[in-house]
Design a protein that fits this description.
Helix content of chain B: 25-40%
Strand content of chain A: 15-25%
Strand order of the largest sheet of chain A: 4-5-8-6-7
Strand order of the largest sheet of chain B: 2-1-5-3-4
Largest sheet of chain A: 5 strands, antiparallel
Mean pLDDT of chain A: 97
CATH superfamily of the largest domain in chain B: Beta-grasp domain
Strand content of chain B: 15-25%
Radius of gyration of chain B: 16 Å
Number of helices of chain A: 11
Low-confidence stretches of chain A: none
Number of helices of chain B: 5
CATH class of the largest domain in chain B: Alpha Beta
CATH architecture of the largest domain in chain A: 2-Layer Sandwich
Largest sheet of chain B: 5 strands, mixed
Radius of gyration of chain A: 19 Å
Shape of chain B: globular
Order of helices and strands of chain A: EHEHEEEHHHHHHEEEEEEEHHH
Structural class of chain B: alpha+beta
Low-confidence stretches of chain B: none
Oligomer: heterodimer
Number of strands of chain B: 5
């Protein structure tokens, strides 16, 4: 295995584009190293991205948006008070991933590129309207986060392409977001169902909303019917019931020992209600 | 397979070793540097027995490549006691009998030390969540939690 430490994303893309065999990018390594050890993935070329300037930084732009480096671990997101104040739902999703030790390494970009339908940080990013900057052999492009997952373990990134930054939009006034998941225990487990809600208020009325569901379909995805159910409402009981029904209707989960189809579907509706209530109260500054 | 020369700092001392790029930091600590206090339980980041700090951040050394340690600061269980003087956490683990087989103990001590440096006065809940990634199959955890809280109190110079 060749170990590379490029100093630019362009060089990383070039290395990956030129490599003939199995290639992996290394950021936090909490998935890649486990796969290597298990023999599931034996890279011929491992491209460590942590020597690229800026990958450890969280930077707020002049417009209030955020640029998060691809090697920023969960622990650093949680320690960044201004980011937590703007996007608590995004940060709380990432902070649910793994243990304290895993939080010291695991990254948003890695959680996204691992392609798990149950990735805890991804619904929050999707609901937030986050985009990713992608560097490839032909230059740089950007894409909404929801366009990256392509099914369990797969992404839409082309060979040689890699994520070079996570971009969060400006929070603006009267906005709030939240992520909740269900696991059968209190810590250190993988979501059986998850839901992120991001909304913006005008007065007490929801003017805009985005809802994303996790672990209840092959891909983490936006649920436009869920957003439609609460836009224009004050999140009263009728709106919550409509949201619940829309979330259940959007589910097409697997049936396994960790959760049956019926269970995952019902829980997705409950989580949508609760996450919406938290996002709403955060938007009100409560 | 060419090996890579790595220079890093472990417990304050500059060290160097030749690493196969596939080797974990845990393997390098144990096999190249003779620091066998960090244990391999699972090798997949679930059990925490290999916990070390890397530039002050708590990580599983089985989920770090040895070559990634180049130019970094690594702290392991071997750096915890000062000479023959045990760290308060180590002393409290003995007093509270917070270990039986001892395999998880180095990782838990390193993790608990990282917690107390960040949060000198943690609640029981904070200690339990912080240590959720350190598995112990002997003690049932209660004695570990009590030992950490007692050590924290002593380090704050309060009676527990």
């Amino acid at each position: 295995m060749n170990y590379h430490t490029p100093s630019t994303f362009e060089d990383a893309a070039r290395l990956a584009g030129a490599a003939g065999g199995v290639t992996r990018f290394l950021a936090g390594g909490t998935d890649v190293l486990v796969q290597m050890r298990a023999g599931m993935v034996l890279p011929d070329d491992l491209i460590d991205l942590k020597k690229i300037p800026g990958v450890h930084d969280i930077v707020q732009g002049a417009d209030g948006g955020w640029r998060i480096g691809i090697a920023v671990p969960g622990a650093a997101l949680g320690a960044h008070a201004a980011l937590v104040a703007d996007w608590p739902g995004v940060v709380e999703g990432m902070e649910l991933v793994g243990s304290t030790q895993v939080q010291g390494r695991a990254t948003l970009a890695g959680n996204l590129c691992n392609g798990s339908p149950a990735a805890d940080s991804v619904p929050g990013l999707v609901a937030a309207g986050a985009t990713v900057e992608i560097t490839g052999p032909d230059g740089t492009r950007s894409a909404p986060v929801e366009e990256i997952p392509a099914g369990p373990g797969k992404t839409t990134l082309a060979p040689g392409e890699l994520i070079s930054a996570i971009l969060l939009p400006p929070r603006g006034k009267a906005g709030g977001d939240a992520y909740l998941r269900f696991i059968p225990r209190t810590e250190m487990d993988i979501a059986v169902a998850g839901c992120a809600v991001n909304l913006r208020l005008e007065g007490d009325t929801i003017a805009e909303a985005r809802v994303a569901l996790g672990a209840v379909a092959p891909r983490i995805a936006l649920a436009p019917d869920c957003a439609a159910a609460i836009i224009g409402t004050t999140l009263d009981e009728a709106a919550l019931a409509a949201l619940d029904a829309a979330a259940r209707a959007a589910c097409s989960p697997i049936d396994d020992k960790r959760g049956t189809v019926a269970f995952r579907t019902e829980v997705a509706g409950v989580l949508a209600r609760r996450a919406a209530a938290i996002a709403y109260s955060r938007a009100k500054g409560e | 397979m060419s090996k890579i020369h790595v220079t890093t700092t472990v417990n304050g001392d500059e060290v160097e070793f030749l690493a196969d790029p596939r080797e974990s930091l845990l393997d390098c600590l144990r096999d190249h540097l003779g620091l066998t206090g960090s244990k391999e339980g699972c090798g997949t980041g679930d059990c925490g027995a290999c916990s070390v700090t890397l530039d002050g951040t708590l990580v599983c050394s089985c989920l770090v490549l040895g070559v990634e340690a180049e130019g970094r600061q690594v702290a392991t269980i071997e750096g915890m006691a000062e000479g023959n003087e045990l760290h308060p956490l180590q002393r409290k683990f003995l007093e509270h009998a917070a270990l039986q087989c001892g395999f998880c103990t180095p990782g838990i001590l390193v993790a608990a030390k990282a917690l107390l440096e960040k949060t000198p006065d943690p609640t029981e809940t904070e200690v339990r969540y912080w240590l959720a990634g350190n598995l112990c199959r002997c003690t049932g955890y209660d004695k570990i939690i009590r030992a950490v809280l007692d050590a924290a109190a002593e380090m704050r110079q309060e009676a527990a």
